[in-house]
Backbone:
């Protein structure tokens, strides 16, 4: 039995080569049970290869995979535990002559469900993904968003504990992306462990409990967005918004030992004399505690500076992605 019983997914030294190409190299990944986890990276980072290995569709070249506390033997190819895994590929293969309910019924047969059980599962899943009214529609006549939701329903036919979703929102319009996001949150609330590969970083930041950033087959960073921010930005950054006299605010802040990193990007400008002018927002590097911040704000107000807001600044997932990845092309 694996020692990682609180982890739904654990990999150590996981690698996959195709000839001389290292698609995934020495990947160490941990995904807690019940987490909604984002796997992000540029094209060619190894995300799809990683998901296919976790799903049992591609045998690793080296390394160890534990799923739900059960070790997977890479050499023997014993993938029994993968019956508890649902996989949604990034490309949806359409069965042109199938109706929506027949598509799900077909996969129910593949998983060995009885006719009575299949009928209930098909009905429930079509309702879950809001396709009940499209039950008798041909699959190839459905919109892109509907096909994506049907493909997600297919991955749920056998009620897996782990869902591996490769770009589930790819190509969807804004409304369809919102519907997909709501559906994933609902599945997460049901206790499913979900790993999502996606390029829509803003949505992953809002949804995910943790993320892993990959590039050239290697894991660069791994953790929550808050953890990544703390590791990448050891200095505490604050945004001060003033409604009057920003130049005086800069002088007072620097006299109090607070570093003014820069004005904000919102119309900010440094004057020719090196002093900020006509700007209402300042970025500060402030290491003091709450009392120290309150003292500085009090000093500003007493000097006649109208303080409108002071709040911490944390980089979002897109900022972290651009900072962590190198953006280099492989030779």
Residues:
């Amino acid at each position: 039995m694996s020692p990682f019983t609180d982890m739904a997914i654990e990999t150590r030294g996981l690698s996959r080569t195709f000839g001389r190409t290292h698609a995934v190299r020495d990947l160490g990944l941990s995904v807690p049970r019940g987490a909604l986890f984002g796997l992000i990276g540029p094209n060619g980072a190894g995300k799809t290869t990683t998901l296919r290995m976790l799903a049992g569709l591609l045998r690793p070249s080296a390394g160890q995979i534990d799923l739900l506390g059960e070790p997977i033997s890479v050499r023997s190819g014993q993938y029994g535990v993968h019956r508890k895994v649902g996989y949604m590929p990034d490309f949806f293969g359409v069965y042109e002559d199938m109706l929506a309910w027949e598509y799900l019924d077909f996969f129910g047969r593949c998983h060995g469900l009885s006719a009575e059980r299949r009928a209930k599962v098909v009905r429930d899943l079509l309702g879950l993904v809001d396709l009940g009214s499209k039950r008798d529609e041909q699959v190839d006549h459905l919109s892109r968003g509907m096909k994506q939701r049907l493909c997600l329903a297919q991955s749920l036919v056998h009620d897996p504990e782990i869902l591996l979703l490769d770009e589930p929102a790819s190509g969807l319009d804004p409304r369809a992306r919102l519907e997909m996001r709501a559906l994933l949150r609902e599945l997460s609330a049901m206790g499913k462990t979900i790993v999502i590969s996606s390029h829509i970083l803003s949505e992953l930041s809002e949804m995910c409990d943790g993320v892993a950033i990959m590039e050239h087959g290697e894991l660069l960073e791994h953790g929550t967005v808050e953890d990544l921010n703390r590791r990448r930005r050891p200095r505490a950054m604050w945004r001060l918004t003033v409604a009057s006299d920003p130049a005086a605010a800069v002088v007072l802040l620097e006299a109090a030992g607070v570093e003014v990193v820069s004005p904000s990007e919102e119309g900010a400008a440094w004057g020719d004399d090196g002093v900020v002018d006509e700007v209402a927002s300042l970025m500060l590097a402030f290491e003091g505690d709450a009392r120290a911040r309150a003292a500085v704000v009090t000093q500003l107000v007493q000097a006649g500076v109208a303080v409108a807001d002071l709040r911490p600044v944390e980089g979002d997932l897109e900022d972290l992605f651009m900072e962590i990845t190198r953006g280099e092309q492989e030779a």
